[in-house]
Specification:
34% of the residues lie in helices and 18% in strands. It is of the alpha+beta class. The chain folds into 2 domains: 242 residues, Peroxisomal Thiolase, Chain A, domain 1, CATH 3.40.47; 152 residues, Thiolase/Chalcone synthase (Peroxisomal Thiolase, Chain A, domain 1, 3-Layer(aba) Sandwich), CATH 3.40.47.10. The chain has a 9-stranded mixed beta sheet, sandwiched between helices. A two-stranded antiparallel ribbon has the order 2-3. Strands 10-11 form a two-stranded antiparallel ribbon. Helix 10 packs across helix 11. The radius of gyration is 20 Å and the shape is globular. It starts with 5 loop residues before the first strand and ends with a strand.
Length: 412
């Protein structure tokens, strides 16, 4: 079977720096920080007090009715809002049996689990909601989006921790390329900002304890001391190229490579030498036909701001690209502006990469004021940079050793 080309024809985002593509684009290119003190609950007894909260989110803007919002966990609501954006103007022209959904979540309905557990302990089992299970399970974002858009094709949510939505988009790319679908609504969603998640991540020594939002998420900086938890969703509509042309769809970029490996090293720590993350990055770039010395590469780094991640990721990029090409690459961590959206991070960062390619502009790594000598590549400190980019790769590294990378090119 001839491999088919795969393009992105729709995008939607809900994030700490904007709840639509244009606001998101403007803010990441201007280096706006979306990290703020937590407003959802009292943090006085918690070690971490800032987060990337979604702001000014109005479900009605996305035609989400009140009953849907009330009976679903926030992770599903965010996913639906992002999917509605991605599908705007793209609702027609589909064989319903050839349209699929791959929207993953690293955790699923965390708030629902907490709420119903409190009911169980305080009032007894008969008061636990009969909707608890279909509300909390991580596949329900995909299920709800499939119902909304009458997508009867393949529907597979991915769960690979912080690599979730990079893997979801990568696996959707392969499914379309190999002829199993004409289009897939793909991405990730997460609503993890609650007392339990913060206590858990903080006690695992993963979260920043800085109370200053401008000194909390510090990828590749010598002062980095943990990631900042965040919420939101990113969704793209992926489509076979000829199908998109026939529909007259707007094409934003071509997905042209995917790599997926596992460190098989530790449940939380990345492989210190970055060997297997490097393999995933190289797989994606090789499939995309990356040409050393010729292509102008943008890398949207995982860049969490944890001590181990940023040093091992620097090593991974050098292994994947070679020392010379790694130093030529233009790299940034958009987590510096919005924190870490866990299962939604990869999709939001792939959208940032699409915008970088489209606009010829590399978003910055903000607050990178004291570069770590170990992290010695071009991480685009503090200000966006114009560049004639010809290729981008967005990579994600998840607990459990999951590594994913997706390569993109401007459409030709």
């Amino acid at each position: 079977m001839n491999k088919r080309r795969v393009v992105i024809t729709g995008m939607g985002v809900v994030s700490p720096v904007g709840n639509n593509i244009e606001t998101f684009r403007k803010n990441i290119m201007n280096g706006v920080c979306g990290i703020t003190p937590i407003t959802k609950f009292d943090t006085s007894d918690l070690p971490s007090k800032v987060a990337g909260e979604v702001k000014d989110f109005d479900p009605a803007e996305y035609n989400l009715e009140t009953p849907f919002v009330r009976r679903n966990d926030l992770f599903s609501v965010y996913a639906m809002a992002a999917a509605v954006q991605a599908m705007q103007g793209n609702e027609e022209g589909w064989d319903e049996n050839r349209l699929g959904v791959y929207i993953g979540s690293g955790i699923g309905g965390f708030d629902t689990m907490m709420r119903e557990m409190h009911k169980l302990e305080a009032e007894g089992p008969r008061w636990v909601s009969p909707l608890m299970i279909p509300t909390m399970i991580a596949n329900m974002a995909s299920g709800n989006v499939a119902i909304r858009f009458n997508a009867h094709g393949i529907c597979i949510p991915v769960v690979t921790a912080c690599a979730t939505s990079t893997n979801a988009i990568g696996e959707a790319y392969r499914a379309i390329k190999d002829g199993y679908a004409d289009g897939i609504i793909a991405g990730g969603t997460e609503a993890p900002i609650n007392r339990l998640s913060i206590a858990g991540f903080a006690n695992a020594k993963a979260l920043s304890k800085s109370e200053d939002p401008m000194a909390a998420s510090l990828p590749f900086d010598a002062r980095r001391a943990g990631f900042v938890i965040a919420e939101g969703a990113g969704v793209v509509l992926m489509e076979e190229y000829e199908h998109a042309k026939k529909r007259g769809a707007t094409i934003y970029a071509e997905v042209c490579g995917y790599g997926n490996t596992c460190d098989a090293h530790h449940v939380t720590a990345p492989h210190p030498e970055g060997t297997y993350a490097a393999n995933a990055i190289k797989m994606a770039l090789d499939e995309a036909g990356y040409q050393a010395g010729k292509d102008v590469l943008y890398v949207n780094a995982h860049g969490t701001g944890t001590a181990l991640n940023d040093s091992s990721e620097t090593a991974a990029l050098k292994k994947a690209l070679g020392e010379t090409e790694a130093r030529r690459a233009m790299i940034s961590s958009t987590k510096s502006m919005m924190g870490h959206l866990l299962g939604a991070a990869g999709a939001v960062e792939i959208i940032a990469s699409v915008l970088a390619l489209r606009d010829g502009m590399v978003p910055p790594t903000i607050n990178l004021n004291e570069p770590d000598p170990v992290c010695d590549l071009n991480y685009t400190p503090n200000k966006a940079v114009k560049a004639d980019l010809t290729i981008a790769v967005s990579e994600s590294l998840g607990f459990g050793g999951h590594n994913g990378a997706v390569a993109l090119r401007p459409i030709k």
